[in-house]
Fold this sequence. Notes:
Elements: H1 4-12, E1 17-19, E2 26-29, E3 32-40, E4 48-57, H2 61-70, E5 75-76, E6 86-90, H3 96-110, H4 113-129
Antiparallel strand pairs: 1-2, 2-3, 3-4, 4-6, 5-6
Helix pairs in contact: 1-3
Amino acid sequence: MADASDVRRLALALPHSVEIDSDGFDFRVGGKGFVWSYPERRPGKPRMIRTDIAVLYVGDEAEKQALLLGEPALFFTTPGYDGLPLVMVRLEAVTVERLAELVIDAWRMRIPAQLLAGLDEALASEAAGS
């Protein structure tokens, strides 16, 4: 079982990741969001920030559908996210290890190419020096 503090710890451990001010959690890399708390919209009421649910960037509709169909107890979506490469994950239903994979994948898909290239070069230099 994971929680908001796990999301925060995992996201902040990634290079160039920043948390922006919000009522829950909201992480960006290169100005692009990759994981944030779910802003639940309720008819006739103000939206409620749900820190027990994370919204994750997944890349494309095919991956989104694979997650939704393959693990419906873990992932869901709402009509407001139709056509967007985003899924919601129930934090109480996901292991910290699986959450780490999901957060890293989302970060990797959103990091600008020039930042990622710089990281790959730094890692290659470190490996060559060891």
